[in-house]
Amino acid sequence: MSLNSELTTDLKNAMKAHDKQSMGVIRLLKAALTNEQVKLGHDLNSEEEDNVVMKEYKQRKESIEEFKKGNRDDLVAEQEAQLKILDKYVPEQMSEDEINQVVKDTIAAVGASGKSDFGKVMGAVMPKVKGKADGSLVNKAVKEQLQ
């Protein structure tokens, strides 16, 4: 089942259950997918769909951090609720061990030797883990292994 049809089914179920929070999140996700489809000019493949979902997920996580800094607990709770709904659609993420292995292999492949090669390693790692790993975790793994 494609992501769009899964979202349509979930939207119908949320409407029947009068779940306004789920309806809102699903509608926003469907709109983001449609906007990306129009921007690219073709039907989205699963990787492109995953990128859109991850972008929405990341936006919510960043909003939570900002709202925590501003002591806006009401908005933090709302964003966390949206994040729980989005969790269902987020592609499976790599474990820290898997990320470390990819970083280790990439460092060996590009011949990196120190902190000065950070950009070169990140540039090679990110396409391999795009949509499957959080960039901050990858950044941390690269820094640790280049020390």
UniProtKB/TrEMBL annotation:
InterPro entries to which the protein is assigned, alphabetical: Asn/Gln_tRNA_amidoTrase-B-like (IPR003789), GatB_Yqey_C_2 (IPR023168), YqeY/Aim41 (IPR019004), YqeY/Aim41_N (IPR042184)
Descriptive protein name: GatB/YqeY domain-containing protein
Source species of the chain: Nicoliella lavandulae
Output the lineage of the source organism.
Answer: Bacteria, Bacillati, Bacillota, Bacilli, Lactobacillales
